[in-house]
Write a structure and sequence with these properties.
This protein has six helices and 16 strands. With 299 residues, the chain is an alpha+beta fold.
């Protein structure tokens, strides 16, 4: 891949936004050639989060189903105001779990057709909090030109036995479908005219009323000290359409070096965007790129 041209000599894409130490872009996947759906990914950035200078909240949602974009936007609209009300400053893990539970019930009770994932990074001078529901990821890029996932996808194919048992107790059903026997979370909808089988690839999600209480809305929450991420140069929050496209190309260290070698956050993000475009993602592909050096406290 040729080096991205200097920002001074190119027009930024319409889907591209940036600020001090961060950039984000969103691409519409190939599926939209056949389906009349809007891009269902949404992102949120809250500087001076909780009124603290140097603290920034980054969040990304990947909606799915007919109302997926509405589900994603609902979460991000309420995240910055609801978390303080849930005593997030005192117990962030408890507040995030309650937030996801309340939003999950809201979407289900009002029969939003679909649901959404959620991944957030709360970056402060003291530490970095990572939380996620579903298969949108947080990934660290290291100074050794490696990518290290900080989250584990809540994908049905990876469901631990204890999670599967809990899902089944809540009425969920996992079925292997197709020639490749791919596992899906399934729900059957019947009426006098037809029978519709709904499938979901994640065992945790927010919304998805068709699946009842089967999928859990509980986020995984992790706290990292800056020392733990001392080798990190950049943090990526990205939807499965983005990280899935990249993983399929099996990024080598030389490709990672070419994308993330020292330069502006805009140029780094444009190179990453080029790689995802080259991979021709089937799904919507969205990424937030955070330059950790812009947020790391002085040593």
């Amino acid at each position: 891949m040729a080096e991205a041209a200097s920002l001074s000599s190119q027009t930024l894409p319409a889907d591209f936004f940036s600020g001090p130490g961060w950039a984000t872009f969103s691409l519409t996947g190939e599926r939209h050639i056949k389906k009349d759906l809007p891009n269902q990914d949404s992102v949120l950035l809250v500087p001076s989060f909780l009124g603290e200078s140097g603290r920034t909240l980054f969040a990304l949602c990947d909606g799915h189903g007919r109302d997926g974009h509405l589900c994603a936007q609902r979460l991000l609209d309420h995240l910055p105001t609801n978390l303080p009300e849930l005593a997030y400053a005192q117990d962030p893990s408890k507040a995030l779990k309650e937030f996801c539970r309340v939003q999950d019930r809201y979407l289900e009770d009002r029969l939003f057709h679909g649901g959404t994932t959620l991944v957030i990074a709360d970056v402060s001078p003291q530490r970095i909090l990572i939380a996620h529901v579903g298969d949108s990821r947080a990934t660290m890029v290291t100074s050794h030109h490696r990518m290290a996932d900080l989250t584990v996808d809540h994908h049905v194919s990876l469901i631990p036995p204890q999670e599967l048992e809990a899902l089944q107790r809540r009425g969920g059903m996992v079925v292997a479908i197709g020639k490749k026997r791919t596992p899906f979370l399934c729900a059957v909808e019947e009426d006098p005219i037809y029978i519709d089988i709904h499938t979901l690839t994640t065992y945790r999600s927010i919304g998805d009323y068709h699946f009842g209480r089967g999928p859990s809305s509980t986020p995984d929450v992790q706290l990292f000290s800056w020392d733990q991420l001392s080798q990190g140069t950049h943090l990526l929050l990205w939807s499965d359409g983005a990280c899935g496209a990249i993983s399929e190309t099996a990024f080598s260290s030389s490709v990672i070096r070419r994308i993330f070698h020292p330069s502006s956050i805009e140029e780094i993000s444009l190179r990453l965007r080029e790689e995802i475009v080259r991979a021709e993602p089937f799904d919507d592909a969205t990424a937030m790129v955070v330059d950790l050096s812009s947020f790391r406290p002085p040593s």
